[in-house]
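User: I'm writing a short report section on ligand binding and want a predicted complex to refer to. Could you take this sequence and nicotinamide-adenine-dinucleotide and write out the structure as tokens? A short remark afterwards would be nice.
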Amino acid sequence: MSLKGKTAVITGSNSGIGLGVAWELARAGANVVLNSFTDRDEDQALASEIASKTGVTARYIKADMSRGDECRMLIERAGACDILVNNAGIQHVAAIEEFPADKWDAVIAINLSSAFHTTAAALPMMRVAGWGRVVNIASAHGLTASPYKSAYIAAKHGIVGLTKTVALETAEDPITANAICPGYVLTPLVEKQIPDTMRKYDMSREDVIRNVLLERQPSKQFATVEQLGGTTVFLCSDAAEQITGTTISVDGGWTAL
Ligand code: NAD
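Assistant: Sure. The structure tokens for the complex follow:
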């Protein structure tokens, strides 16, 4: 599979799944644009490392995905966007009655509204280029719920709905839109939840991983960022040309339960 000559913009890609997806797209030949809201030497260094190890062009563009104007600016500054991976996301865990309204707004803005803005800016470029792929990183929580994650689950169900609408609006164009629904992946987003859970249940790290985090993941294994990158590359392949408006679970059987 060669994506040579294609440009991929991956939101929230200086860490975790986004970075893993960027690596796999670069290994498949795509030029990549990394993004986050920070402006650190390490961010630029990630792009340099991808470029030097894979031979593609890799850039880092700072843009805050909680702001619609910056989402659109990211795509404009990228200059081309054949593959758009909407990945930026945050989590906040609290019961609805205690859920801070500003956290609700931030989760909805970063995990859902950003994808509306980037997609609106990218689709005209894809139409001109005559080819395009929108890949939204949703979650098993886009298909099923858990308590205390109301904003995240609303945003992830929302992005699955947005994916279907984008697919219908591009159905007759050589553009597809799909959502990948990962189960648990051991990234900084999940790592942050472990110490609190260890304290809360007085459990070891291993017990938290097996009995709490992976409780609903029948394989009892984390999905990996490389597997999610590989799934994204597949969705960009010719074999996936007629796959649009759907979800692909990479969740060790979670949503089969
Ligand atoms: P992570 O914390 O490692 O990465 C999140 C990325 O989003 C980081 O690069 C961060 O800088 C970026 N980001 C956060 N706020 C931003 C903002 N305002 N503007 C721009 N970038 C911003 O987490 P991750 O686990 O890699 O999560 C990536 C995506 O995968 C998220 O959408 C998450 O919901 C989804 N996901 C993760 C898991 C999991 O188990 N890790 C499971 C299902 C879905």
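A remark for your report: The radius of gyration is 18 Å. Residues 66 and 106 are 6 Å apart (CA to CA).
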